[in-house]
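Support request from a user on the community tier.

User writes: "When I paste my structure tokens into the form, the page sometimes reloads and wipes my input. The last time it worked, I copied everything first. Here is what I submitted, just in case something in the input itself triggers the reload:"
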């Protein structure tokens, strides 16, 4: 009875061992399985009691080497590990032999092959993937004895393995055609693998043909984001902008998200080719899509876009480039640690100039906001920035905002050494003068009354520079009465002191109406008050005498100008020479020639201008 029980127990153990051995033959990963249960080591070296001779041998064992001896043992660390040093967990990447691959092809089903391919793809064992697939498709199924038939995903592993083994696009197309033997139709992933091979080989025409085939086939093989990225990137590399834009349009219509690389390449290609309107439409369409509105070129590419847009006065594209700058600045401020990015102020001045020439209020506002975020209240903007902003508001007829900017400008640079030139209505503030006199006396009166109301508030705003613009604006419309009344209001109504620009504007008003005597009296009056005339003062007096056809008086003013250590401009000397020539005064012409030689001016003749005075109008046409 005991022997029978023992025989049954032995048979059960053998059966259990056989099943256990069968389970071990089907690992779930590509790595060899390790026994995880702890077991005692019963070897004699560990169980034997140490003897006296062993203790003596242990007592005479050598010490580790001296660290000062330069032993390589102390030079190895985790950065520069030697190949001889041991490792607790060695990296095991076994390479299966041909017999093992053959055995796997006989024993695994489709699901098991899929798991093996996933592991081998991670390990980049492409040759094994290819061999196993070819062996497996030639083997019979263990269940029904029919040939193994892969599905589309399994076949895509085979295509990927061939792609990674440098197979050409033609070879991949032949392999994809063999899918019909298994009753399969290639899906989008299958076509993408062929497109990658075409991208590597720069086969542009074949890629477009394959893309058109994908569009015509059906839902399972319609292009996805990766398909469009590959084709668009290839066309941009081959400088085929129109074809690339066609597929880019299809991408946006399909609702896919553009990759950052494709978007940057498209932007760079459009800017280089001068397709600024096309680039603007692409950016507008991307902004309307939730998945693409976050696209933003790199900082350097934003600078490139802004430079090209400002050179061509493309206001909308310049506005988008400033939007990209604002995103980068916000990202830098939100980063930890923060990255403080700033836009070059010269670029902002150029943007304000473009806004004034194209009458784009959005570009003007965006330029100023980006400038303030770049400066971060550490300093005030440069005078050129304020002048550019005044120019922009003046050209668009926004006089109230222009005068507000002038107020900020005076608060920042009113006491500087360059204040006289910065607030001159003849140069820096001339756009504001033109805007005030654009609609005649109606605009001038409106601006004057607004300034008068602002001067009566609790925190009054009084500005001589603003009133000077009104005086010169009145002179531009030949309205001497308004110019003189505004000049008197500076010291009367506004309780301010006229500066040299105020007197120059009044001299200009008298000179235009040939009132040379009154203009000279204004000059004598400012001299008596101790106001120092500038170069513009003498130039306006010369113009007044020339308008009155008195070149001799004009030359006398130039003499006084030189005594005051001012040099007459080439344009002023040219005007005097022209008047002397028309008055046929040879004596004065000699003085003008001496003046030209003294200042080394090169003044060409006025033959083409004089043709206008020798025209004979009549009805006899040749």
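"...and here is what came back when it finally went through:"
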């Amino acid at each position: 009875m005991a022997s029978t029980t023992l025989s049954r127990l032995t048979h059960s153990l053998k059966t259990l061992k056989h099943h256990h051995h069968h389970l071990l033959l089907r690992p779930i990963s590509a790595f060899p399985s390790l026994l995880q249960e702890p077991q005692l080591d019963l070897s004699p070296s560990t169980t034997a009691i140490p003897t006296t001779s062993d203790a003596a041998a242990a007592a005479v064992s050598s010490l580790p080497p001296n660290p000062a001896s330069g032993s390589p043992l102390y030079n190895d660390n985790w950065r520069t590990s030697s190949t001889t040093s041991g490792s607790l967990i060695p990296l095991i990447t076994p390479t299966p032999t041909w017999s093992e691959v053959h055995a796997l092809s006989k024993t695994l089903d489709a699901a098991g092959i899929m798991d093996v391919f996933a592991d081998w793809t991670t390990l980049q064992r492409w040759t094994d993937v290819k061999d196993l697939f070819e062996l497996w498709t030639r083997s019979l199924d263990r269940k029904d004895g029919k040939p193994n038939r892969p599905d589309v995903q399994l076949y895509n592993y085979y295509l990927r393995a061939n792609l990674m083994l440098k197979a050409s696009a033609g070879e991949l197309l032949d392999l994809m055609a063999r899918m019909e033997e298994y009753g399969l139709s290639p899906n989008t992933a299958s076509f993408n693998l062929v497109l990658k091979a075409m991208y590597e080989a720069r086969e542009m025409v074949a890629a477009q043909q394959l893309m058109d085939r994908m569009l015509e086939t059906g839902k399972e093989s319609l292009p996805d984001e990766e398909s469009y990225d590959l084709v668009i990137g290839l066309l941009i590399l081959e400088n085929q902008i129109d074809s690339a834009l066609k597929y880019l349009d299809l991408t946006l219509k399909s609702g896919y998200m553009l990759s950052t690389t494709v978007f940057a390449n498209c932007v760079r290609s459009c800017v280089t080719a001068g397709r600024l309107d096309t680039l603007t439409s692409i950016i507008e369409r991307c902004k309307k899509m939730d998945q693409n509105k976050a696209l933003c070129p790199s900082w350097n590419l934003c600078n490139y876009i802004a430079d090209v847009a400002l050179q061509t006065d493309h206001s909308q594209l310049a506005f988008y480039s400033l939007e990209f700058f604002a995103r980068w600045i916000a990202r830098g401020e939100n980063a930890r640690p923060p990255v403080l990015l700033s836009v070059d102020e010269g670029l902002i001045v150029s943007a304000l100039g473009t806004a004034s020439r194209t009458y784009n209020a959005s570009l003007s506002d965006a330029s100023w906001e980006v400038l303030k975020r770049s400066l971060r209240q550490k300093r005030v903007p440069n005078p050129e920035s304020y002048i550019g902003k005044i120019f922009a508001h003046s050209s668009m007829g926004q006089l109230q905002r222009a005068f507000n900017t002038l107020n900020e400008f005076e608060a920042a640079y009113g006491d500087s050494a360059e204040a006289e030139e910065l607030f001159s209505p003849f140069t820096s503030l001339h756009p504001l003068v033109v805007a005030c006199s654009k609609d005649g006396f109606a605009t001038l009166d409106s601006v004057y009354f607004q300034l008068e109301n602002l001067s009566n508030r609790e925190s009054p705003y009084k500005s001589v520079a603003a009133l000077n613009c009104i005086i010169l604006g009145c002179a531009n419309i030949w309205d001497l009465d308004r110019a003189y009344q505004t000049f008197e209001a500076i010291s009367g109504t506004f309780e301010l002191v006229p500066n040299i620009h105020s007197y120059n504007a009044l001299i200009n008003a008298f000179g235009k109406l040939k009132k040379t005597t009154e203009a000279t009296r204004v000059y004598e009056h400012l001299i008596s008050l101790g106001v120092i005339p500038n170069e513009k003062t003498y130039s306006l007096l010369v113009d007044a005498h020339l308008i009155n056809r008195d070149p001799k008086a004009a030359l006398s003013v130039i003499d006084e100008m030189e005594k005051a250590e001012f040099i007459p401009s080439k344009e002023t000397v040219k005007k005097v020479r022209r008047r002397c020539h028309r008055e046929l005064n040879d004596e004065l012409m000699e003085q003008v020639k001496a003046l030209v030689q003294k200042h080394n001016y090169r003044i060409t003749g006025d033959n083409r201008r004089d043709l206008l005075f020798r025209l004979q109008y009549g009805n006899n046409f040749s």
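Agent notes: The reload is a front-end session timeout and is unrelated to the input. Residues 332 and 340 are 6 Å apart (CA to CA). The two ends are 146 Å apart (CA to CA). Escalated to web team.
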